[in-house]
């Protein structure tokens, strides 16, 4: 059995859509990005960014007077957070729910925290499972490495 320290890391409070020390391509106030620029910075495709907006995962994207999407540094921070949530395996529906809660403000902090705590528990369980799998793989690798060195018996 693998034991994992699951003590939460203590960090200063930071809202999900606020920069956590990430450098941005442009300073605040000059941070207007086209969808192609955001795609390049984030690695997400333009269709994915449009879909995120359509399903409510990015409901606050500004538009120019011609209707062109204009993203800002806060949007980049949000997309970085969403990318982390995707890595956890969180379903898109839960991410959309989280985004809705963010829009509703501070009154939803407890509910948001519970969503994140549940996701954390699931990630820790997957890590433990992967750690056990790694132990089995290491044992098999050692076995086969030793079997190759051992002389064959006739």
Please supply descriptive tags for the structure shown above.
single chain; 154 residues; mainly alpha; two-stranded antiparallel sheet; 5 helices; 57% helix
Shape: elongated
Distance between the termini: 39 Å
| Sheet of most strands | 2 strands, antiparallel
Give the helix level as a range of percent: 55-70%
Q: Low-confidence runs (pLDDT<50, min 5 residues)?
A: 9-14
- Kindly provide the radius of gyration, computed on alpha-carbon positions and rounded to a whole number of angstroms: 22 Å
The counted number of beta strands is: 2
Could you state the order of secondary-structure elements as H and E?
Answer: HHEEHHH
Percentage beta strand: under 5%
Spatial strand arrangement across the major sheet: 1-2
Average pLDDT works out at: 87
Total of DSSP H or I helical runs spanning 4+ residues: 5
Task: Give a brief rundown of this model.
By secondary structure, the protein is mainly alpha-helical. The chain has helices spanning 35-42, 46-55, 73-88, 92-104, 109-149, and strands spanning 62-63, 69-70.
Characterise this structure:
This protein is an all-alpha fold. The protein is 57% helix and 3% strand. The protein contains 5 helices and 2 strands. It has helices spanning 35-42, 46-55, 73-88, 92-104, 109-149, and strands at residues 62-63, 69-70. The protein has a two-stranded antiparallel ribbon. Strand 1 and strand 2 (69-70) form a beta hairpin. 13% of the residues are buried. Mean pLDDT is 87; it is low at 9-14.
């Amino acid at each position: 059995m693998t034991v994992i320290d699951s003590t939460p890391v203590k960090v200063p409070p930071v809202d999900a859509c606020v920069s956590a020390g990430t450098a941005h391509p442009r300073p605040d106030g000059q941070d207007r990005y086209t969808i192609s620029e955001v795609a390049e910075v984030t690695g997400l495709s333009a269709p994915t960014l449009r879909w995120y907006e359509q399903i409510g995962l990015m409901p606050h994207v500004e538009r120019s007077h011609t209707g062109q999407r204009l993203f800002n540094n806060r949007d980049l921070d949000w997309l970085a957070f969403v990318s982390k949530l995707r890595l956890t395996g969180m379903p898109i529906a839960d991410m959309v729910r989280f985004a809705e809660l963010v829009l509703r403000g501070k009154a939803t902090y407890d509910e948001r925290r519970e969503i994140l705590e549940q996701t954390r528990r699931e990630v820790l369980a997957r890590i433990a499972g992967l750690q056990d799998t790694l132990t089995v793989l290491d044992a098999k690798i050692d076995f086969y490495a030793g079997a190759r060195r051992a002389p064959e018996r006739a």
